[in-house]
Design a protein that fits this description.
By secondary structure, the protein is of the alpha/beta class. 47% of the residues lie in helices and 13% in strands. It folds into two domains: 72 residues, lambda repressor-like DNA-binding domains (434 Repressor (Amino-terminal Domain), Orthogonal Bundle); 185 residues, Endonuclease, Chain A (2-Layer Sandwich), CATH 3.30.870. It has twelve helices and six strands. Strands 3-2-1-4-5-6 form a six-stranded mixed beta sheet, sandwiched between helices. It is globular, with a radius of gyration of 21 Å. The N terminus is likely disordered.
């Protein structure tokens, strides 16, 4: 039995505009959902959900659709608008600058930074942090955060430097299985051409940044903007006094953190604590 087609209004939301355009391009190309599924390697169910506005287009589907239809960056551009619909407004400017940045430095005291989070980890954060949120809202937030991570896969990505508080490694968000996957995902990024991860251990003591998240966004022209976030607030600063102060605080934290090699060792040791115990032999 054919499922009823959801009536979309492209003026109502970017998500519905995306669905309308996907259906239009697919029909112009003479492709069935089954055939398009084979081409872009996404399930027919997911594609149907995107077309009807019931699902968000999970990355990197937009790039694949543009290649499949020869539409340049049409769907990638639409995805940028969809993503903003599912991101707190206070974070909008940070997202814009993040997409342009030549260097991104971040500190997370008790949570893994968003650009490093696995899908399971971020989903657990939203479920546990906002108990009243429905599944559609959670899917939207997850898709938006996954979309931010496209920046990591660029041919010429920014230079990334993350400092992660030891608490973020030990706080069992989502349970042992989620944390095993999350910590295992960090290890290959500890020290590469474009990424550095340091862990700030518990014995490093207190610091001015320990109550929230700090992101330093340096643009190609050398200017730096600060995004600072805590429970219920987020602020952007670009005045010289505040930027200088936050950069100095970040540098102090960097100096007191473990080296990348020591950080990798601590991540590995913490990961082992999340490994399932073997059942005793009988």
């Amino acid at each position: 039995m054919t499922q009823p087609t959801h009536s979309l209004d492209p003026a109502r939301s970017a998500r519905e505009l995306y669905g309308v355009e996907l259906r239009r391009q697919r029909q112009l190309a003479g492709l069935s959902l089954d055939r398009l599924s084979d081409i872009v390697n996404y399930s027919k169910t997911h594609l149907h959900g995107v077309e009807t506005g019931e699902r968000l287009p999970l990355p990197p589907i937009s790039e694949k659709l543009d290649v499949a239809f020869g539409t340049g960056e049409l769907f990638q551009g639409l995805w940028g608008t969809v993503k903003r619909e599912h991101t707190p407004r206070r974070f909008d400017l940070c997202l814009e600058l993040e997409a342009k940045a030549a260097r991104i430095q971040a500190f997370g005291a008790s949570l893994i930074p968003g650009l490093l989070q696995t899908e399971a980890y971020m989903r657990a954060l939203f479920i546990e942090g906002e108990p009243g949120m429905n599944s559609g809202e959670i899917d939207g937030l997850v898709a938006a955060r996954l979309g931010r991570q496209e920046i990591l896969r660029r041919d010429c990505p920014p230079d990334f430097w993350w400092i992660i508080g030891e608490a973020a490694l030990r706080q069992a968000v989502g349970g042992p299985a989620v944390m095993r996957e999350q910590l295992a995902t960090l290890l290959p990024l500890v020290q590469t051409r474009h990424t550095t991860i340091q862990v700030a251990p518990f014995d490093a003591g207190a610091c001015a940044l320990m109550n929230g998240t700090l992101i330093l966004l340096t643009l190609p022209d050398g200017s730096t903007t600060v995004y600072q976030e805590g429970p219920g607030y987020g602020e952007i600063f670009d005045d010289r006094e505040t930027v200088t102060k936050r950069v100095r605080e970040y540098d102090r934290k960097k100096a007191g953190a473990l080296s990348p090699r020591e950080s990798a060792a601590l991540i590995e040791a913490t990961l082992e604590k999340y490994e399932p115990c073997e059942s005793p032999q009988t």
